[in-house]
Structures are given as structure tokens and as C-alpha cells.
Design goal:
The chain is of the alpha+beta class. It is built from 10 helices and 12 strands. The longest helix is centred in the first third of the chain and has 27 residues. The protein starts with a helix and ends with a helix.
């Protein structure tokens, strides 16, 4: 209540819509804080970096050699968390998302949404001066619009419905290392409803979106190849207007201000994006590794 009086002149004279939106924002912020508090209370991972720059003096940019020259990838990681257990460091990266972001591993085959995994690759390759030797343990999206959906459905939602929505909308999206140490360290054993992966103690197997150290190496090799391909295409001036799409229509073309420049029209060639389950995508990575070894 102090904020509205100290920063924006109080509630007097404000419209009902403004007050409604303001209260919704306050509730969302409190839900995020409660979600983070719950996460840190059950987990052993601790934040060790915020807005971590890839391409800084401490952590150099990720570089890939091209046919003629090289390409450097820079960016910023919202949050880096570390856990040390029995002398071994485990690292995960967290990205805050204002919208609904679902991690789909299969999209990486088409060069889409490689950002998070690429950042983890960059830290593994160039971040040892800051974090030491570590095991890559996860890439996770944390939604920051917790509970919004119920407010949009009704101006007077039931409290139990809002709490249920907060639980669902606060679930992390991404993938986690196939390790009991990591699962326990993240809190996925005690609070499985918040995580995209877990461990079934009855069947004694990992569930959800997991990866092994071998999977991460294969994934890193694949993404490095995608970066090189994109860099070589750009260097060679090969930038065809073949947008991502479905049903013979570019997915983003109707919103694009440059549609008239590229000349794309409905019915032109499009790129259809791979849509496989996480498990099948991991199996494909293993298959690619076996083929390259023969």
C-alpha cells in the first residue's frame, strides 16, 4: 500500500480499471516472491549471478569457426544458480518469461529457441574462470505471470481457483540433468509439481524432460553445427525468404512490417518445424551420434 502512495500519488482519482490492474500486478509480484521463496526453501541451488553477460571480459563470447572467418554469440542470462555437493559443482540457468513459454527440445533441430542451451554451452566453455569446473545441470524457464489467467476469466475468482492457477502457472519449463543429486538439489523430489522432470521412486526411473551428460554433449555438437551453418549462410549472402510456418502460411508473416520487402506471399515455400516428444528428440540425438561414429 505504501508504494501506491509514495510513488504514484495514491489511489484517489484513479479509475476502477487502474486500481484493478494495479492490485492484480501486486498480487502477481507477491506470487512470484512466494514461488521463489518456496523454491529456495526446498532446494540446495543458490543464485550466484544475475544478468550474467556472455561476451564480457569475465566470460568471453561463444565463438564458432566458419568457412571464412568466425561468428561470436553474445547475450545475457537472467540468473545462474550453483550447487556444490561432495566437492562437485552443479550449474543451472534460469530465464524469466513474462509470457507462456514452453521448452520444446525438438525445436532446436530447426535452429529455434537455442538461446538457453547455447548460454549453458558458453558457460561450460568460457565460464570456468568465474564458476570453476561444473556439471551442466539444467535450463529452466520461470514464468513471471503467475496466476494471471484466472484474473482474466473473472473479476471475482474463487480463492481456491486462484491458488490452483498459481501452482500450475508457476511450474518451470525446460530440462534437468538425469541425476538424483540434481533432482534433490532442485527440490523436484519434495515439490515435483513445480518441475518439468522428476524421479519415480516406485518404478526407480526418471520422468519428464531429462538429459544425461552424453545427451548434452550431443546437443552441444548439434547446436554448434547450427550456429556454423547460419554464419556461413550469412557470410555467403544466402538469406532466402522461407519463413517458419504451418498450413501453407508463414507463422509470423501477417505481423511482419517487412513482408512487402521480402516478397513472401501465401502459398510460398515455408519451413515446417519439427514436433517430437522430448524422449524421441533425445533418441534422435543418440542416433545422430551413432551415425557420425560409423
Amino acid at each position: 500500500e505504501c508504494y501506491i502512495y509514495d510513488k504514484i500519488g495514491g489511489s484517489e482519482g484513479k479509475s476502477k480499471r487502474f486500481i484493478f490492474l494495479y492490485n492484480r500486478l501486486v498480487d502477481t509480484c507477491m506470487a512470484i516472491v512466494a514461488r521463489l521463496k518456496q523454491e529456495f526453501s526446498v532446494g540446495a541451488f543458490e543464485p550466484c549471478g544475475f544478468e550474467v553477460e556472455i561476451g564480457s571480459p569475465e566470460i568471453p563470447a561463444y565463438e564458432a569457426q566458419l568457412e571464412n572467418g568466425s561468428v561470436s554469440v553474445r547475450g545475457s542470462i537472467d540468473r545462474v544458480d550453483l550447487m556444490e555437493k561432495d566437492g562437485i559443482k552443479y550449474l543451472r540457468i534460469i530465464d524469466y518469461k513474462t509470457g507462456k513459454k514452453e521448452f520444446k527440445l525438438s525445436e532446436l533441430f530447426d535452429g529455434l529457441n537455442i538461446q538457453m542451451v547455447l548460454y549453458l554451452m558458453a558457460l561450460e566453455k568460457n565460464g570456468k574462470a568465474v564458476y570453476g569446473d561444473f556439471i551442466p545441470s539444467g535450463v529452466l524457464y520461470l514464468p513471471s505471470r503467475i496466476g494471471i489467467a484466472d484474473y482474466l476469466k473473472s473479476r471475482s475468482p474463487k480463492e481456491e481457483d486462484v491458488n490452483h492457477q498459481k501452482t500450475l502457472s508457476g511450474k518451470l519449463s525446460g530440462m534437468m540433468l538425469e541425476s538424483l543429486v540434481v533432482m534433490k538439489g532442485m527440490g523436484a523430489i519434495d515439490s515435483p509439481k513445480y518441475f518439468p522432470a522428476g524421479y519415480d521412486s516406485v518404478k526407480e526411473k526418471f520422468t519428464g524432460n531429462t538429459f544425461t551428460g552424453r545427451d548434452f554433449k550431443n546437443l552441444s555438437k548439434m547446436i554448434d553445427g547450427k550456429i556454423k551453418d547460419m554464419g556461413n549462410f550469412l557470410h555467403n549472402g544466402e538469406i532466402p525468404a522461407i519463413p517458419v510456418g504451418e498450413n501453407d502460411e508463414g507463422k509470423m508473416c501477417k505481423y511482419c512490417s517487412y513482408r512487402a520487402i521480402c516478397g513472401y506471399e501465401s502459398g510460398d515455400e515455408i519451413r515446417k518445424i519439427s514436433d517430437f516428444s522430448h524422449k524421441n528428440t533425445i533418441e534422435m540425438l543418440v542416433g545422430d551420434e551413432d551415425e557420425s561414429a560409423t
